[in-house]
Design goal:
Blueprint (H helix, E strand, L loop, with lengths): L2 H12 L3 H21 L3 H21 L7 H5 L8 H22 L1
Helix pairs in contact: 2-3
Length: 105
């Protein structure tokens, strides 16, 4: 799929959903930071789940299965038995990044 087709697909999916997308992005960005401040760093672990929630929510938007409530979309990774798979995937990605950084150090 070339860049033009991807761009047109994204424009079509976001048509009428810009407010939802901006609100979701702000919520996904600010909530983990606020939780990290309140919990002395535990929110850093929660970033894994909120990043996965954002990815799932936007993929659902493309598949026309959008969660209408932004808060429900922000917590997608915490629901429907996704907690452990998302945690394991996030931890594996984190260790891979750390390993890659150690190679170049």
């Amino acid at each position: 799929m070339n860049r033009t087709l991807l761009k047109n697909q994204a424009k079509k999916a976001l048509a009428g959903n810009w407010t939802w997308a901006v609100a979701l992005t702000l919520l996904i960005t600010l909530l983990p930071s606020f939780l990290a401040f309140l919990t002395f760093g535990f929110g850093g672990l929660l970033i894994i789940f909120f990043a996965a929630s954002a990815q799932m929510a936007f993929l659902n938007l493309l598949d026309k299965q959008k969660e209408e409530n932004v808060f429900t979309a922000a917590f997608t990774a915490f629901r429907h038995g996704r907690l452990m798979p998302v945690l394991i995937s996030g931890l594996l990605q984190s260790t891979r990044i750390i390993h890659t950084l150690n190679i170049f150090a």
